[in-house]
Specification:
This protein has 19 helices and 15 strands. It has 507 residues and is of the alpha/beta class. β1 and β2 form a beta hairpin.
Length: 507
């Protein structure tokens, strides 16, 4: 197959949509085969109620329709599309995403600000030499600005600020007029966003600064055409470009800026110049790698069993100090049950194993808050934490899976999932609940001969003769699970399985 080694990474940004297609035949490196970029200004399509306008949605869908043509022949599992700030914040994001996924022919993951920053750093780091220096990476998008300090390919500290070139344009430069007073107002807005985090970046003692994406490249282009600098942006060139912008007085007169970039250039420049001033930056290198390249490298990692989401889960486990032995017990049994039913329940996909593994590792992290209703605390922590590698959708699914591992099932929450997730999550919840039930004693138990069989919406749990008498609490808990299963539309039978042969009789 001609494109079997290709990967495609799609960035649905607040200002521009980008797609990079690369040959990833050799592990650890990519060869760019094609790049597409269209200025959509999705953020500019938000109304006062934070709903995406019909016009903005139409621009986006038409772009995705064009992108889809380039995905032909690339295996589905080697394609990843991510949405950023505007899709995080739009009130009608879910409705739009359904149309967007149908148009693109592929799922779209909406990532958190933390995950966006991590992917930006990854894209920049792979583009730059690994000299071992600690570097600051700045990415100015349409709806947010990411600041990251890292070393080599590892980010160390990250923040995503709720201000970008499109959103700041809407607030200050909406009619295109550029004045000193507007510049000052825009700078004050940026400084307010920076204030809570800027101290940490001053203390991190980074050794070089790097800029990614459109704003930094546009500033560099202007500086070169004005005869100021080449190949990097300096404090001196920033001062000269600022003077040129103020002398120009209107965005449509910014002759050294592309037609598409002109409306948001002044706002992007203010964000960049304020960061220069607040952090005392003298020189900023330019990286060609950004979010979409980071998505590509992260996707390659997943294809080679280096899924960054495992690191995200491990970080939460370490932070909340869960019982590793109990997590291991539940994890191993849940996976064993999945092996027994995956064919009958159509759960062969690798993601199902990962979801069960992650939920087993995390199901008790809420105990650090309080044992009472700890499953709810666990779910809240999972849904609202910064977890490497996770989209917001998968993070919410994982939180729901953990929330339902004991006591009441959140039927309404399950029903609100996309149709293709409802049955899958219901069945994974059943497997996790059963694994937790068998290890309620929090000690090693002889589970030889424990068998689960399923047929559509019927679950049969059987154990060897005599096992039930030795474990009366487990049998009692299994009997009580019947009503819980019924609330999900599933039946449960519990009984004796003669020597693990599969012959079942009620206890």
């Amino acid at each position: 197959m001609e494109k079997e080694n290709y990967v495609a990474a799609i960035d649905l940004g607040s200002n521009s949509f980008h797609m990079v297609i690369a040959d990833a035949g050799d592990h650890g490196s990519i060869k760019i085969m094609d790049q597409l970029r269209e200025m959509i200004r999705l953020n500019a399509g938000l109304d006062q109620d934070r709903n995406l306008s019909g016009e903005a949605q139409q621009r986006a869908l038409e772009c995705l329709h064009r992108f889809r043509q380039c995905l032909t022949g690339i295996p589905t599992h080697r394609i990843r599309a991510v949405g950023t700030n505007t899709l995080r914040n739009a009130q009608n994001s879910d409705a739009f995403l359904k149309c967007a996924e149908a148009t693109l022919g592929h799922p779209i993951s909406v990532v958190s600000g933390h995950e966006e920053a991590r992917l930006v750093y990854l894209g920049a780091a792979f583009d730059l030499s690994t000299r071992g220096k600690k570097r600051l990476v700045v990415d100015i998008g349409g709806g947010s600005t990411e600041l990251i300090v890292g070393k080599s390919h590892k980010p160390l500290h990250m923040d995503s600020l709720e201000i970008g070139c499109v959103s700041l344009t809407r607030n200050v430069f909406d009619d295109g007029c550029i004045t000193k007073s507007r510049f000052k107002r825009a700078k004050n807005l940026v400084s307010m966003e920076l204030q809570p985090v800027i101290g940490a970046y001053r203390k991190l003692k980074w050794q070089e600064a790097v800029g990614t994406s459109g704003t930094i490249k546009a500033v560099d282009k202007v500086a070169r055409e004005l005869g100021i600098e080449r190949d990097w942006v300096s404090a001196k060139s920033m001062a000269e470009v600022k003077k040129w912008i103020l002398d120009t007085k209107h965005s449509h007169l910014l002759s050294h800026v592309s037609d598409q970039r002109r409306p948001v250039f002044a706002a992007g420049f203010v964000i960049l110049s304020t960061i220069f001033e607040e952090l005392g930056i003298n020189r900023m290198e330019i990286s060609q790698g950004a979010l979409r390249e980071g998505v590509a490298y992260d996707l390659i990692g997943r294809l080679h069993d280096e899924d960054s989401r495992f690191h995200g889960v491990a970080s939460l486990v370490t932070q909340f100090k869960t019982d590793p032995e109990q997590a291991n017990r539940v994890q191993n049994l849940a996976i064993r049950f999945l092996d027994q039913v995956k064919d009958d329940w159509d759960l062969q996909e690798n993601l199902n194993y990962k979801l069960l593994y992650w939920s087993a590792r995390l199901h008790e992290i809420g105990i650090s808050v309080s044992y009472d209703q700890y499953h709810l605390h666990s779910a809240y922590i999972i849904e609202h934490s910064n977890m490497d590698g996770f989209s917001r959708q998968i993070q919410k699914v994982l939180a729901l899976l953990v929330r339902c591992h004991r006591l009441k099932i959140e039927i309404d929450a399950i029903a609100k999932l996309p149709d293709e997730w409802v049955e899958r999550i219901s069945r994974l919840i059943i497997l996790l609940r059963l694994a937790v039930t068998f290890y309620r004693s929090r000690s090693d138990v002889d589970l030889f001969g424990i068998v689960i069989k399923v047929s559509n919406r019927q679950v049969i749990v059987s154990y060897p003769k005599g096992w039930g008498k030795a474990h009366p609490l487990t049998v009692f808990d299994l009997e009580n699970e019947r009503l819980v299963f019924e609330s999900m539309g599933y039946g449960l039978e519990v009984g004796i399985n003669s020597n693990g042969t599969g012959r079942f009789q009620k206890a």
